[in-house]
Amino acid sequence: MQTIDVKQLSEKRSGGEIDLIDVRMPTEFREVHAECARSVPLESLDPAAVMASRNGNAGHPLYVICRSGNRSSQACQKFLDAGFENVVNVEGGTMAWEKAGLPVVRGKKSLPLMQQVQITAGFLVVLGVALSLLHPYFIGLSAFVGAGLMFAGITGLCPMASFIAKMPWNQCSDGGSCCSTT
């Protein structure tokens, strides 16, 4: 997999136009992103559609960025698996971009998804315990949430996180680009 550091990418950007996609969640992108990036969330990434949307520039490198480099390397692998080879992972991600003093766009902040999951899971467990004082079967709610957390820890898949990510407050109302700086 090809990689590039943020300083090298910035130099390429000053020499001409680059195609940089940010594969973080829309709310993360809205909070802060590299000035030249466009949002293409990893969860809905379709490599063929992204390449088709490049208006004849499929031969030019596609640079992929996330927060720190993990999700962008997963996205690059998706492109490679789909047969697209000219994709480049941005080392260090948006954190490195920002730390290097390169231009960013800042927008509205929101609670991180995992913090939202923790709040929801904690609330449901406490609710299940409290309701079990009325009827013992309500303790099943707490057991269900606990089992879901175990499942998420073992498999790395969290249905609650997927559900919460689709909530209106975790969506961007400007067509998905989340570029507003309100």
UniProtKB/TrEMBL annotation:
Domain of life: Bacteria
This protein's UniProt keywords: Membrane, Transmembrane, Transmembrane helix
InterPro entries (alphabetical): Rhodanese-like_dom, Rhodanese-like_dom_sf, Thiosulfate_ST/Rhodanese-like, YgaP-like_TM
Limits of the Rhodanese domain: 14-106
Alphabetical list of Pfam families matching this protein: Rhodanese, YgaP-like_TM
Record keyword Transmembrane helix present: yes
Segments passing through the bilayer: 117-138, 144-165
PANTHER family registered for this protein in UniProt: RHODANESE-LIKE DOMAIN-CONTAINING PROTEIN 15, CHLOROPLASTIC (PTHR45431)
Protein name (database record): Inner membrane protein YgaP
Native organism: Stieleria varia
Name of the gene encoding the protein in the UniProt record: ygaP
